[in-house]
Amino acid sequence: MAFSIRALGAELPATPATAPSSAGHRFRRFARRNPTLVLGGAVMMLIAISGILAPAWWTGDPLAMRPVDRLQPPSLAHWFGSDNFGRDVYSRTLYGTRVSLVVGAAVALASLVAGTALGLVIGFYRRIDTVVMRVMDGLMAIPAILLALALMALMKGSVRNVIIALIIPEIPRVIRVVRASVLSLREQTMVEGARALGARTPRILVRYILPALTAPLIVQATYICASAIIIEAILSFLGAGISPETPTWGNIMAEGRAFFQVKPSLIFWPGLLLSIAILSVNLIGDAARDALDPRMKQREAGK
Q1: Predicted confidence (pLDDT) per residue in 201-247, tens digit
Q2: Dihedral pair phi/psi, residue 82, rounded to 5°
Q3: How far is CA 76 from CA 73, 114, 270, in A?
Q4: What's the CA gap between 293 and 290, in Å, rounded?
Q5: Can you give 116-170 as a three-state secondary structure string?
Q6: Which of 148, 231, 236, 280 suits a disulfide with 241, CB 3.0-4.6 Å?
Q7: Is 236 within 8 Å of 103 (Cβ atoms)?
Q8: Which of 280, 256, 259 is nearest to 270 (CA)?
Q9: DSSP 82
Q10: Please, are residues 118 and 175 in contact by the beta-carbon 8 Å criterion?
Q11: E-strand spans in the chain?
Q12: What is residue 218's three-state secondary structure?
């Protein structure tokens, strides 16, 4: 009986405690290969969580005015001090994170969807390529900030209108990236084979060309997001963006510039968060470009 028990025990699989954690091992391996991506993603996630959960981070009403407490230095009651209306700068800075991230994400997503759809059509149907691309070249000739200022002059200041004003300058840039890729992919053997087998153009675009655009579009999305965040702050700083009472990083800095010599912290804290957010998004974009670029992978394999 003892022999049979030992025999059965020998056939039992190893306990989970002795087996290495495959998920943890894969994450550590990924972090070693892409430290910049992990760092940028961690910082951006921390900023996003601080904005989403702003009420839970010992904040108050960002719109509450207390004239008695105006221009107070940092203290336990006001961690970043108070502005000229007695509003808590810490609360306004954290709540301003929401606006910046919403604008950046919405502009990146909408620009990618519209630009990809138009770029696929323009790159595959050469008849409309010349006309549409000349219009896109005309839009790209105008700096994005100037075009956004002109559009905001025609609309009321709101988050929705700022998003619309930022999408229009970014769509031509996405179209150029997609069109350039489509012009090279449409001559590939797989596309010619699919065409010879009778596949229709929409199927070719979705099945063969669109998947090949994933890598450049992911990288382009990060750059659009960073550009949208900083241009929204510029518009608000110039008074042409979101309404001044709404807590955004640009609005906070715009209201604090008149008191910069007396209270430089009014501009320092929102400016610091804005810089960190832009830096983290750019780190994600650079790391994604290196990770998704086949030439970089071949270079690393050669080493």
Answers
A1: 777 777 778 888 888 898 899 999 999 999 999 999 988 888 888 89
A2: -130, 155
A3: 10, 47, 19
A4: 5
A5: HHHHHHHHHCCCCHHHHHHHHHHHHCCCHHHHHHHHHHCCCCCHHHHHHHHHHHH
A6: 236
A7: no
A8: 256
A9: B
A10: yes
A11: none
A12: helix
- Contact (CB, 8 A) for 217 and 119: no
Please enumerate in sequence order all residues whose Cβ is within 8 A of that of 87, keeping only pairs 6 or more positions apart, or say none.
Answer: 62, 63, 64, 65, 66
**Residue 140 in contact with residue 85, Cβ under 8 Å?**
no
- Joined together, the tokens standing for residue 252 give 């906070």
Give the mean pLDDT of 105-120: 93
> pLDDT tens across 271-292, in order?
999 999 999 999 998 888 877 7
Query: Please, what is the angle between helix 265-292 and helix 249-256, to 10°?
Result: 150
Helix (H, G, I), strand (E, B) or coil at 241: coil
Rounded to the nearest 10 degrees, what angle do helices 159-185 and 89-124 cross at?
A: 30
Question: Is 221 in contact with 108 (CB distance < 8 Å)?
Answer: yes
Whether the CB-CB separation of 124 and 182 falls below 8 Å is answered with yes
Span 131-140, average pLDDT: 88
Q: What is the 3-state secondary structure (H, E, C) of 282-300?
A: HHHHHHHHHHHCHHHHHHH
What's the CA gap between 98 and 106, in Å, rounded? 12
Domains for the chain: give ranges and CATH numbers.
52-302 (1.10.3720.10)
